[in-house]
């Protein structure tokens, strides 16, 4: 029989350390508590040493990583708080509940900061569905789960992404991000201050659901996981809506000194984290915890991941007033223990002490320092010869195939299932460059996005990760916003494998460098490792980047569609001869290979500053970045939902035509400018030393015409392209 | 004109309606809590959208038993104005203040999008700022917006001009292809026979400010204010 500590997921080395902390053998309850708290999911033992690379400070950053979510100053004494989190493994086996509770969990992180949640986003990665099989069910259930939770709770789903690659067939990715808004004076911290103060559990009852969820998230998925379904929590968005309303009402009074949501590892995690942050101890009596079922053991109560619960640290003597407010919302608020000054986490069941552990030891999981190894596949993909790829005969057919390919097709089928307008702040809805929310009572707006590109990061973990950051920032710039901060969701395979650790390490280095240059510090994040299945191995390394931007004046909000016939179309940035790692290479030539496009971060930053300044000068009528599918796809996206056409002439060059049309050369934007402003724009570009090319004119023909070297290379009716672009999802999901 | 915004647990559009009344049309406004029964200070009540009681059982089924609903019925009997939006419409049908019922969308999916609706009757306290057959682009966001009424009931609605809004295309055509949820006769909003209660699935509070797309929805609230002013108040 395995020893208990092994059962709990601890290694021999970790067990020895545990013995040192306790100075004695742990009892079974204590072993279980260490097991979950020292899991990768709670303890970040593989990733913490790498996180020190991240830039986490800046003039606007009031709170970096370490709290429930980071905080960014948006002026006028207002702040936003946001974080992304993964719920991959639960969603793989119970997609509706897994996705729903992923949304619910991240919303509570934001609530725990004291903020009102004002938006949610997601980043979803699947394989393309084949027929009526499992994947289609999975996608449809994940989307229904996200919608069901967000719609009921009344927080708009303002953005997100759905991306497809075969690598996610057995291990889909479901990441959710939430954004909150508050005044500076309303910030709460996750700290158990003041010995004698009460620990109150508020919200839902504690049950056996989600037992061991944190440990389950910290191992690879295999056939036996279907038996882990009990480790998936069950969500109740109505309860969470009440929890939000009640908590915000309580926070407005001066009753609460600390708040922590109960997510992974439930009571044990929230109490030990708040205690160790304050340098205090806590004493909890599990017999006081309101439970859903009788006969739960102390360990089960402590590690249950039942949803819609929060821990409040309430000033001594204020408990009844807190309870009265929760009662008004038909919720309970129950004292389960108090803050002590001895540094111990003491768990009692009535008068009997069942666990007594130094609180700080639980939250300080031993770090594992690993060494990476360059994966073998990289030498093959990096030496891919792009010149071996033949030019398609018909660029019209190529464009049609691309506009209807799953990664480029319209996501309307998805986002119309999400309420993206509730709270009446959504100025730019899903489908735009970013989700844009106005801030009532001010001239400001904030922008949010999630971005990932697994294929890029697979083909070049470091440079690909830089591009993900740069691309995310470009989306904000094109919306008229200054990018201000980042949250990262690191989705990787098993870090115990040196090749996977290499991907993780290189990706973090790339993200760090790009965030430093682009001045977007990382304020929060989450790591989901062990995303592997026995059949397919590890997923693509998939860092998901959630980004926020600030628009000081709503008049600067800029959108993708062309606005007027006669406007002049410009590309900002240079073409290149690159087709490696592109959507085009995969969709048209069936090749996932080559290196990612070259990115120079200093040029990227200068280009972004130039475009934002031009927008703020009110000389830009529409803007988008040039990304997946290159210039041709960017052009189609500026024409959708308009009655316009465009007549485009690609400047003479030595590059291959497919690279000019569909290549993903970096640091580029596609803008339209009124003829009256053209001179101003051009001279401003010259002053700023930014390359721009005048490509053509917006017209009212309803056709996209692209010419190169005097010949027509694309001539397409926009309505046809748009209906192909819209048809993919409904057909795929029928 | 003083507005009350009826607030049930889970009424997640209550704040949005409050914002429009208070900040956009600048009327005195307060929340009317579901446990309250005193409406004497109010001239009109908005029953907002959302998921009252989590839509448990079915939308509106639990809300109708709240103490505030008895007060609301008396309020209606006095001839005062009540508008139910989305979940508010569902609650008003459940409570018997409006005929018919709202069932699951034909697509069986939640549907959130801009939707053109056509004003069918511009002579009500809720629509007098519109002209007949005026088109407005008003967001919908619902799972159960499929209005059902039997043939007899439909004939009665038609006979009394109680159909106020219909789903339409951008050029004003009303047919099956412009029906987003399967509603009988493309019905998007109806009044009671006394025309002091309106229920509508689209959200006029979501298009009351041009920054959010268009401000056509504001005319619903302005019509109510005009009608109050014209009634000698």
Percent of residues in beta strands of chain B: 15-25%
In total, the number of strands of chain B is 11
Number of helices of chain A: 26
Percent helix range of chain A: 25-40%
Topology order of chain B in helix (H) and strand (E) letters = EHEEHEHEEEEHEEEH
> Can you identify the CATH superfamily of chain B?
Class I glutamine amidotransferase (GATase) domain
SSE diagram, text form:
The complex is a heterodimer of chains A (734) and B (233).
Chain A: H1 4-7, H2 12-22, H3 28-37, H4 40-43, H5 48-51, E1 61-63, E2 70-73, E3 78-86, H6 88-93, H7 95-112, E4 116-126, H8 134-153, E5 157-164, E6 173-183, E7 198-203, H9 213-216, H10 237-251, E8 256-261, H11 266-278, E9 281-285, H12 298-303, E10 309-314, H13 319-328, E11 332-340, E12 344-349, E13 352-358, H14 359-363, H15 377-382, H16 395-403, H17 412-415, E14 426-428, E15 435-438, E16 445-451, H18 454-459, H19 461-478, E17 482-491, H20 498-517, E18 522-528, E19 532-533, E20 537-538, E21 542-551, E22 568-572, H21 583-589, H22 601-616, E23 622-625, H23 630-639, E24 645-650, H24 657-662, E25 669-673, H25 678-688, E26 692-699, E27 703-708, E28 711-717, H26 718-732
Parallel strand pairs in A: 4-5, 9-12, 17-18, 24-27
Antiparallel strand pairs in A: 1-2, 2-3, 3-6, 4-6, 7-10, 7-11, 8-10, 9-11, 12-13, 14-15, 15-16, 16-21, 17-21, 19-20, 22-25, 22-26, 23-25, 24-26, 27-28
Chain B: E1 3-7, H1 14-24, E2 29-33, E3 44-47, H2 67-77, E4 81-85, H3 87-94, E5 101-103, E6 111-119, E7 135-142, E8 146-148, H4 151-159, E9 163-167, E10 187-191, E11 197-200, H5 218-230
Parallel strand pairs in B: 1-2, 1-3, 3-4, 4-11
Antiparallel strand pairs in B: 5-8, 6-7, 6-9, 9-10, 10-11
């Amino acid at each position: 029989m395995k020893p208990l500590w092994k059962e709990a997921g601890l290694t021999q080395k970790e067990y020895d350390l545990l013995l040192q902390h306790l100075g004695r053998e742990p009892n079974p309850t204590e072993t279980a508590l260490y097991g979950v708290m020292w899991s990768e999911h709670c303890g970040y033992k593989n990733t913490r040493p790498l996180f020190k690379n991240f830039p986490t400070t800046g003039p606007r950053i009031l709170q970096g990583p370490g709290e429930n979510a980071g905080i960014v100053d948006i002026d006028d004494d207002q702040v936003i708080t946001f974080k992304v989190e993964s719920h991959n493994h639960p969603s793989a086996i119970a997609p509706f509940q897994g996705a729903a509770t992923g949304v619910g969990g991240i919303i509570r992180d934001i609530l725990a900061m004291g903020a009102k949640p004002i938006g949610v986003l997601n980043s979803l990665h699947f394989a393309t569905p084949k027929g009526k099989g499992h994947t289609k069910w999975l996608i449809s259930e994940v989307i229904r789960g996200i919608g069901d939770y967000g719609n009921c709770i009344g927080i708009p789903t303002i953005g997100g992404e759905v991306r497809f690659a075969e690598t996610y067939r057995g291990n889909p990715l479901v990441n959710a991000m939430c954004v909150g808004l508050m005044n500076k004076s309303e910030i709460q911290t996750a700290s158990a201050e003041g010995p004698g103060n009460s620990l109150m559990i508020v919200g839902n009852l504690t049950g056996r659901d989600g037992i061991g969820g944190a440990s389950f998230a910290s191992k690879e998925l295999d056939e036996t996981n279907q038996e882990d379904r009990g480790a998936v929590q069950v969500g109740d968005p109505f309860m969470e809506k009440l929890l939000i309303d009640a908590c915000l009402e309580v926070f407005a009074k001066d009753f609460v000194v600390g708040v922590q949501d109960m997510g992974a590892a439930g009571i044990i995690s929230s109490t030990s984290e708040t205690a160790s942050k304050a340098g205090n101890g806590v004493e909890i009596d599990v017999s006081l915890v309101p439970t859903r079922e009788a006969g739960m053991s102390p360990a089960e109560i402590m590690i249950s991941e039942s949803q819609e619960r929060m821990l409040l640290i309430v000033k001594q003597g204020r408990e009844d007033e807190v309870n009265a407010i929760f009662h008004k919302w038909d919720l309970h608020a129950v004292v389960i223990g108090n803050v002590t000054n001895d540094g111990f986490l003491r768990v009692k069941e009535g008068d009997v002490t069942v666990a007594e552990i130094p609180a700080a030891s639980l939250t300080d999981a031993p770090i594992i320092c690993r060494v990476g190894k360059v994966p073998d596949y990289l030498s093959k993909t990096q030496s891919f010869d792009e010149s071996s790829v033949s030019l398609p005969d018909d660029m019209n057919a190529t464009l049609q195939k691309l506009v209807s390919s799953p990664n480029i097709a319209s996501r309307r089928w998805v986002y119309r299932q999400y309420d993206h307008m509730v709270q009446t702040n959504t100025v730019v809805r899903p489908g735009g460059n970013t989700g844009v929310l106005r801030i009532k009572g001010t001239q400001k707006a904030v922008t949010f996005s999630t971005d990932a590109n697994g294929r890029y990061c697979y083909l070049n973990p470091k440079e690909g990760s830089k591009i993900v950051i740069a691309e995310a920032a470009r989306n904000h710039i094109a919306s008229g916003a200054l990018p201000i901060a980042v949250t990262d969701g690191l989705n990787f395979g098993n870090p115990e494998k040196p090749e996977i650790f290499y991907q993780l390490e290189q990706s973090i280095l790339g993200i760090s460098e790009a965030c430093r240059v682009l001045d977007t510090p990382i304020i929060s994040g989450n790591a989901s490792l062990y995303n592997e299945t026995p059949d397919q191995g590890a997923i693509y390394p998939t860092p998901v980047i959630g980004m926020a931007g600030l628009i000081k004046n709503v008049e600067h909000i800029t959108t993708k569609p062309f606005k007027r016939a006669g406007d002049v179309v410009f590309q900002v940035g240079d073409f290149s001869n690159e087709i490696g790692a592109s959507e085009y290479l995969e969709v048209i030539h069936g090749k996932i290979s080559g290196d990612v496009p070259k990115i120079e971060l200093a040029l990227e930053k200068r280009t972004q500053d130039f475009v934002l300044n031009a927008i703020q000068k009110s000389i830009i009528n529409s803007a988008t970045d040039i990304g997946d599918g290159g210039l041709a796809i960017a052009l189609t996206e500026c024409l959708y939902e308009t009655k316009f056409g465009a007549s485009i002439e690609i400047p003479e060059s030595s590059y291959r035509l497919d690279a000019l049309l569909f290549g993903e050369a970096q640091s580029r934007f596609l803008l339209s400018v009124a003829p009256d402003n053209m001179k101003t724009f051009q001279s401003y570009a010259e002053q700023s030393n930014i390359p721009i090319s005048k490509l053509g004119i917006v017209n009212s023909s309803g056709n996209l015409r692209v010419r190169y070297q005097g010949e027509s290379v694309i001539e397409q009716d926009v309505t046809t392209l748009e209906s192909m672009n819209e048809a993919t999802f409904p057909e795929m999901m029928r | 004109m003083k507005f009350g915004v009826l607030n049930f647990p889970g009424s997640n559009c209550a704040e949005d309606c409050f914002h429009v009344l208070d900040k956009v049309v600048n009327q005195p406004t307060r929340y009317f809590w579901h446990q309250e029964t005193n409406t004497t200070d109010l001239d009109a009540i908005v029953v907002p959208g959302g998921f009252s009681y989590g839509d448990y059982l079915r939308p509106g089924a639990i809300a109708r038993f709240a103490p505030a609903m008895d007060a609301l019925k008396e309020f209606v009997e006095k001839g005062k104005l009540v508008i139910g939006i989305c979940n508010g419409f569902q609650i008003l049908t459940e409570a018997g203040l409006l005929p018919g019922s709202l069932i699951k969308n034909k697509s069986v999916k939640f549907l959130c999008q801009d939707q053109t609706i056509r004003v069918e009757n511009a002579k009500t306290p809720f629509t007098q700022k519109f002209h007949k057959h005026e088109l407005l682009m008003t967001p919908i966001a619902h799972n159960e917006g499929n209005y059902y009424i039997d043939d007899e009931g439909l004939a009665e609605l038609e006979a009394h001009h109680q159909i106020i809004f219909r789903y339409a295309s951008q050029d004003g055509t009303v047919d099956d292809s412009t029906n987003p949820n399967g509603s009988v006769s493309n019905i998007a909003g109806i009044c009671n026979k006394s025309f002091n209660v309106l229920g509508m699935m689209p959200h006029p509070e979501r298009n009351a400010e041009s920054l959010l797309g268009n401000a056509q929805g504001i005319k619903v609230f302005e019509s109510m204010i005009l009608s109050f002013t014209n009634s000698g108040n």
